[in-house]
Design goal:
elongated, 0% strand, mainly alpha, disordered C terminus
């Protein structure tokens, strides 16, 4: 458990850190966007920052998920995570750890993008300043955002998981054909209900915690004339070093 947990912490630090820094590069923190009415341009730029964060995460997350999936197979004989990694490297090669990476990209780019955009949209729909937004509102926005991102990417995740779990598949196309032939189109939503039940509280907690933490940091400014230097305090990465949220978008 410890190794996947550490890996998940690191990946989430990268995810939220990249998203926040891309947002700054796109000037989404500029005063012109700090209005009650958000423009289409605002959400489009938010989608871009989320997509880039999702793309970055994909290449780190794919080998971690492959090992986790192999460890969870019923007839797994590995005593530890490192035993699984060593066996993969011995039996195949380093490249095999990235089996299914492009499926992870196809899942995470739209998934993470919609994740951040939907949260921002829901929060803005309350018509309340973010600093004054009640905790319950943050919890609801985070939970709904997490479920929404899963709804639009779950079919891809189903195929990705099967492809990474079963080495007998020589291609994604073969995996897709066999899945549909044996179980029909319903295979794409098998296990969706428990995934959503898990996603809502996980994402509700993380987004509420992130926003409350940022609110606390902003209040540490000595006075209204001194700008708090958020660049010197990467709040998302530091926070997510302690919070395992991947089995959020999961």
């Amino acid at each position: 458990m410890s190794s996947p947990l550490i890996g998940s912490m690191f990946i989430n630090a990268v995810l939220f850190g990249v998203e926040e820094n891309v947002r700054k590069m796109l000037h989404l923190n500029d005063p012109k966007y700090h209005t009650s009415h958000k423009t289409r341009e605002f959400y489009e730029l938010y989608a871009v920052s989320g997509a880039i964060a999702g793309l970055t995460q994909s290449f780190l997350l794919s080998p971690v998920e492959l090992v986790k999936i192999r460890m969870q197979i019923p007839d797994c004989h590995y005593q530890s995570t490192w035993c699984c990694v060593r066996d993969i490297l011995k039996t195949h090669n380093f490249k095999h750890l990235f089996r299914g990476t492009w499926l992870t990209v196809l899942r995470d780019v739209p998934g993470v993008s919609s994740y951040f955009v939907s949260f921002e949209y829901i929060c803005n729909s309350y018509r309340i300043s973010r600093d004054n937004l009640p905790v319950l509102h943050l919890l609801m926005a985070g939970g709904i955002a997490g479920c929404f991102s899963w709804l639009i990417t779950y079919p891809i995740d189903v195929i990705k998981t099967r492809f990474q779990a079963d080495e007998s598949f020589s291609s994604v196309k073969e995996c897709l054909k066999k899945a549909v032939a044996s179980e029909g189109n319903k295979v794409f939503f098998r296990g969706l209900a428990p995934t959503l039940l898990r996603a809502f509280p996980n994402n509700a907690a993380v987004f509420a915690t992130v926003n409350l933490f940022n609110r606390l940091m902003n209040n540490l400014a000595p006075d209204d004339n001194v700008e708090f230097n958020t660049s010197a305090l990467p709040s998302y990465p530091n926070l997510h070093f302690f919070i395992d949220t991947y089995d959020i978008h999961r």
